[in-house]
Design a protein that fits this description.
This protein is mainly beta. The chain contains 1 helix and 28 strands. The model is unreliable at 1-26 (pLDDT under 50).
Length: 417
């Protein structure tokens, strides 16, 4: 029998369908946690130690997500790596359960991760003695299945001891099949911001600065904290502090591929920017040849944008710099990504994890969560994000959160763009 449906009934169906469509769009609003990732968009990851922390994140070509940080035990600290499927579940094809822990020395801190074109995973940071008074650059490379790659320095691990004391790594990037690590080294008197470049086999690349290592002095106690490769050039950023750390400035530099400073950038290849008393650059990204550095200035978030020639860019926020508290007690930005020319800064409010999106001119992007700001409470407070990557229509972040018992936790989340 043919079913007869009244016009009134049809109109009700149309209204319901429209309502459902509007509701679905509302659920998937820009800046919302992506609930198709791990059910609610959030993961608290354990590696079996007493405490954990997340520092960097990357996405493989197949959509799998690699997050790195550290695992703390009663006897030390190790590199900790987790790989997730696109739905947020741990990838059991990676080290059996989706997690791998690599011991290099006593106190090991993984600070950065990069994916090679062959899918191998490179992790860099530092290894220190028990009281952190002496550190060295440390790297590990894993095969796609999570095992250590023995074609990399025979055992999958590299330690670089350079200078008369401390040296360490804070970030890394791939330059073709070569590995760039940035951080610091000590020359016997003070700390210099330093770039290290390695060949694919784990040895230092002597075509870079003669021995694979380039210390750069900005006149004080200097550290590089971020690196990016763009159009064949190497971009680095960080901060330069006085010896008593009572004042500091944001620093950036551009290098040629052979490890020399590029004099077409700010006249001598490097630039220092003062915004307040205590200014810190923590990460950078390149947007159409312009250099975006994010960090903190006197308890506020700070963003600086330079032109391709190394001058402050007046098309951004009027004078090339932006300092604001966003209405929070103590915000900061630790990392940055560029999405279609928009600047996505990630860090913390002093309490919760923070994402904020700006237009190319330095205005808050009100198409992102209505006011350009997203905060996420993970429980006790002291939440912050250490790294962000935009891939496959998601912002992936990794960071740290305190448990109710005041223990550090390794956190991962995915947000809608």
């Amino acid at each position: 029998m043919k079913k007869v449906t009244s016009p009134f009934y049809k109109s009700i169906l149309v209204a319901i369908c429209l309502a459902l469509m509007i509701y679905t769009v509302a659920l998937a609003a820009s800046g919302d946690l992506d609930t198709t990732f791990s059910g609610d968009g959030k993961i608290i990851q354990s590696f079996g130690g007493t405490e954990h922390g997340g520092t960097d994140i990357a996405v493989q070509a197949n959509g799998k997500v690699v997050a790195v940080g550290d695992k703390v035990t009663a006897v030390g600290r190790d590199f900790a790596i987790a790989r997730y499927n696109p739905n947020g579940s741990l990838d059991a094809t990676f080290s059996g359960d989706g997690r791998q822990v690599v011991n290099i020395g006593v106190m090991d801190q993984a600070m950065g991760v990069a994916i090679q074109t062959d899918g191998k995973i490179v992790v860099a940071g530092q290894t220190c003695n028990s009281n952190y008074s002496l550190c060295d650059v440390a790297l590990a490379r894993l095969n796609t299945n999570g095992t250590l790659d023995t074609s990399f320095s025979l055992d999958g691990k590299v330690i670089t001891n350079f200078g008369s004391g401390d040296n360490g790594g804070a970030d890394l990037s791939m330059q073709g099949n070569k590995i760039l690590v940035v951080g610091y080294s000590h020359d016997g008197t003070s700390y210099n911001a330093t770039v290290y470049r390695y060949l694919s086999n784990g040895s230092l690349d002597t075509t870079f600065s003669g021995d694979g290592i380039l210390p750069i002095n900005f006149g004080a106690v200097d550290f590089f904290t971020g690196v990016a490769v763009y159009s064949g050039k190497i971009y680095v950023a960080g901060y330069s502090a006085t010896s008593d750390f009572n004042a500091s400035d944001i620093i950036a530099a551009r290098l040629n591929s052979n490890g020399t400073l590029d004099s077409t950038f700010s006249g001598d290849g490097k630039v220092k920017t003062n915004l307040g008393t205590l200014d810190y650059g923590f990460d950078l990204a390149i947007s159409g040849g312009k250099v975006v550095v994010v960090g903190r200035s006197d308890g506020n978030i700070a963003i600086v944008q330079y032109t391709a020639s190394g001058a402050l860019d007046p098309t951004f926020s009027g004078d090339g710099s932006l300092v604001t508290d966003l209405g929070f007690p103590s915000p900061w930005l630790t990392t940055v990504a560029i999405q279609a020319g928009k600047i996505v800064g990630v860090g913390g409010t002093g309490v919760d994890g923070l994402l904020v999106r700006f237009t190319a001119t330095g205005n808050r992007d009100t198409t992102f969560s209505a006011d350009g700001i997203v905060t996420t409470d993970w429980g006790k407070g002291n939440d912050f994000y250490s790294s962000v990557v935009f891939k496959n229509a998601r912002y992936y972040v990794v960071g740290n959160s305190k448990s109710t018992s005041n223990v550090n936790r390794f956190i991962v989340a995915a947000y809608k763009p």
